[in-house]
Amino acid sequence: MKFRLVLLGLLVIMGLIAWSLRAPTVSDETVFMNGQILTMSEPMRAEAVHVKDGRIVATGSEADIAAGAPNASVIDLRGRTLMPGLIEPHTHPLATAMLGATADVSGFAHDSRASVMDALEAAASGFQPMAWTVAFGWDPVMLDDLDPPTLAELDAIAPERPLVVYTQMLHDAFLNSAALAAAGIDRDTPNPKGGEFVRDTSGELTGAVREVNAIKRVLDAIPETPSGVTELLLNLQYASYARVGYTTLGVLGPMGRAKDPLAMMARLGSDQRVPVRTVVYALPEQLDAGDWPADTGDELFRLRGVKFWMDGSPFAAGAALADPYEDNTFMRERIHVAPGHRGALNYDPEQFEQEFERFHRAGYQIAVHAQGERAFDLVLNAAEKVLAAYPRRDHRHRLEHCALMRASQMKRAYDLGFTVSFFIDHLRFYGHRLPEIVGRERTKRYMSINTARQIGHRVTIHTDNPATPIDPFRAMQTAIMRTPERGGGALAPSESLSIEHTLQAMTINAAWQLGIEAEVGSIEAGKRADFTIVDLNPLDVDPSNLSSIVVESTYRNGQPVDTRSWNWHNLALGRRALQGLLGLTSD
């Protein structure tokens, strides 16, 4: 009898655990009401929305919707606001997932160089399941006393184990001697196009590595993470996006040491339990390595295009400017650039024209990172030639970040059919330094998003995570207020967006840019029921308080998204991850 009672107790406990881990669901036919519905279509507001089998049936008054759906279950919004699921058009979830398991040395977590160096020492001396010690977030623009780490300092912290420290924008890195050796970098290694293995006056390596083509050499040397571990970390990261209101992500260049990242992302992204939809723009070499035609995938995961970097980050003096960067103490001693420096281009004109033609003719949507005026000219010159020879209707090729894009270049891009997306967080986190980096006159046209909108572009905004933290309403607030976090007035206030245009940028415009506007981006009959529920209607909130809006839940295809770390899906992924770490799987 006692044994039976114990067994019964265990079964009850197991049942409770299984019940607690199951994904939440609602009826296949529901009506959302008793709140505010923000449709992002005409009319802009509604009282209720009817959903059936994952799609929107109708919006309208509560009385009309209730009369048209007599058998539907009712979801009471309790005064909250339901809006289209938010869309992040440019982010790097794989890199964020992998870097989330590294040492945090960012300006968001530390306020001095001493604190950052302590964090590096703690990471190097603590438990390390992987072969390298990796840190992320070094930020000399945000932290005033953050001089670069010397090779001697890094060697003292990690004498034998490879150590790499990535900067916040991922356009610079610092390596110890063991990491340089593991990456096969020595004093005779040639610099890649647009990148640099920095050397001192005697030709010896300093440990600093600049720009993406040089950093790729380092990234390729880091041992791959078992795919089971990567999938678990990525799924947990997807949930982080969903928790703040995103239902769809544009993944621009899957970066991170994972085996066959496209196949892994497709496998995970097509699972109905995954928290977000993904639209992916792969790197050229990833497309060349496998069979990935344009628009491969399904309604949850889609391979849409290809991603290029034409130049680097202005905060590493890597953006390819028309005129030199400013010459001052900050630029010489903190960013370490000589007078007259203008930044480098990653491609020669002929080389990029060939690449552009290759992927354009194959049907891909081409996305190009471009920050400085010279970068835009090179991209647009190549596109003009290719499009004249091989016209393609509604290609929607993309220009990413658009920091110092001139109005004339925006008009030319519009005429050529390009779309534009703005990394608006530059203004919030680094705006206080812009006059020292690009000068006051260029700061007046930095992130000219309203000019682009007036020209006719359907502008979008993004946070380029992990470059800045995930937070859509903070980004919206920045697009409206344009004020640096560290003081000072609005930067180029004439470039401010209205709240309506800002909401469009992160819903219907972003859906259009990703080529999925027929499915998501607004609350209209026939579209998928992807929703974000927030405590306040953004249209009724003072723009300076937008970042205080609380996301309470997200829905995909009419079902609540399970964003818990502990659920059946993550449990299964965790089991596979453990097998990978123990070497019990073949991948």
Which spans have pLDDT < 50 for at least 5 consecutive residues?
6-12
CATH class of the domain at 284-522: Alpha Beta
* CATH architect. name of the domain at 284-522: Alpha-Beta Barrel
State the end-to-end CA separation: 48 Å
Count up the helices.
Answer: 21
Morphology call? globular
Total beta strand runs: 25
Q: Mind telling me the C-alpha Rg?
A: 25 Å
What fold name goes in the CATH topology slot of the domain at 284-522?
Answer: TIM Barrel
- Percent of residues in helices comes to 25-40%
Specify the structural class: alpha/beta
How much β-strand is present in the residues? 15-25%
Mean pLDDT: 91
Instruction: Describe the sheet with the most strands.
Output: 9 strands, mixed
CATH superfamily of the domain at 284-522: Metal-dependent hydrolases
